Amino acid sequence: MTKVLSKATSSLNGVIQVPGDKSISHRSVMFGAIARGKTTVTGFLPGDDCLSTIACFRELGVTITQNGDQVEVEGKGLDGLKEARNVLDVGNSGTTMRLILGILANTPFHSTLIGDSSIAKRPMQRVTKPLQSMGAKIDGREEGNFTPLSIRGGQTKGIHYQSPVASAQVKSSILLAGLQAEGTTSVTEPEKSRDHTERMLQAFGIEVKVDGLTASLEGGQTLKGTHIEVPGDISSAAFFLVAGAIVPGSRIELKKVGMNPTRTGIIDVLQNMGASITFANVNEDAVEPYADIIIEASQLKGTEVSGDLIPRLIDEIPIIALAATQAEGDTVIKDAAELKVKETNRIDTVVNELTALGVKIEATEDGMIIRGKSTLTGGKVSSHGDHRIGMMLAVASCLAEGDVEIENGEAVTVSYPNFYEHLASLQR
Ligand SMILES: O=C(O)C1=C[C@@H](OP(=O)(O)O)[C@@H](O)[C@H](O)C1
Ligand SMILES: C=C(OP(=O)(O)O)C(=O)O
Fold it and tell me: EC number(s) (predicted)?
């Protein structure tokens, strides 16, 4: 589907409840599935990626009822999972693939995993290698790096893993395998990645130790079903934070957005750029803190985004690049080579699609340089099947002189099924 969007005829004004956090929604189903007893979830994200997670665990014999953002998972423990009759299809979701591999490292049966054409290009050795070293039998294309993958789990042994990348998917996969492994399992990262797994495992009754950049747990612990309240996804809110900041005269209120400090890099960057952001109804005591965020348009200035800030905003870089096009001065994004192994190579797709809209932007080895004060033209662009690129281009259309035609615009349903309706609602 080609989505054709025209320049906003007014400022953007209104109140939005962004859908549930994708990372937390995945984990609520996965941890519920391997827990003993029922888990109830509210605020679940019914986006394609999280629906893939539900489908995989149903294939593994778990009863899951999902009605919009309400989910119930009938957990029977890790040994309640059954060998699937079909392949497990993770669709477009890297999180599903990498975390499920950690869970299946301990199941004494065979599973085959596939995904879409984007997943087929994403490196899996970052989890299959350490899981193999724990004792899981995994094979796949190019020595277990790419789908289709097969895994036969069994009794694993704990490891102390020094991860070469700051990746919550790697950390989570190994910790999940460690739950049933003999002895202690620990993961040390070069910078801190999102800590939803550590927080949620504790809510399921697991003892997880966190010491600086190392997270560890003892094998042989059992998860107990619980209730999970999923806050709004700050990665989804990011599109409206930037839209509100750059479309003159705008004021947007975003309700109950997750404020986990490992995810709030976008707020820090926008504040550095001079954005006007205020908070209300702050709840810092929840397992996952949240707040309402109010953004008002203001003149932004260029900035540098680098170092340990990168893992705190990795999925927001496409929309940060768009914000930078409207800033005074240049913006430099570096230390972000991980962008190359997302749904698309997000250095290339951001640079190519924004160039097509008239922006002066250059790719670098590990990021990009964006010249400020660009006039956005209209044009034919593509999401390349990447939800975050689709939403960034839709926000660009609010300022573009001509129509923006987004090929494969439906990709947004991966993380934000009602994104276009929400964007349109701000223009009435
Ligand atoms: O653990 C998670 O839920 C995620 C971790 C990040 O990936 P990496 O672990 O590859 O950095 C992020 O980009 C992805 O959208 C979700
Ligand atoms: C990278 C992303 O997700 P995943 O790795 O789960 O496909 C994303 O949502 O931007």
Answer: 2.5.1.19
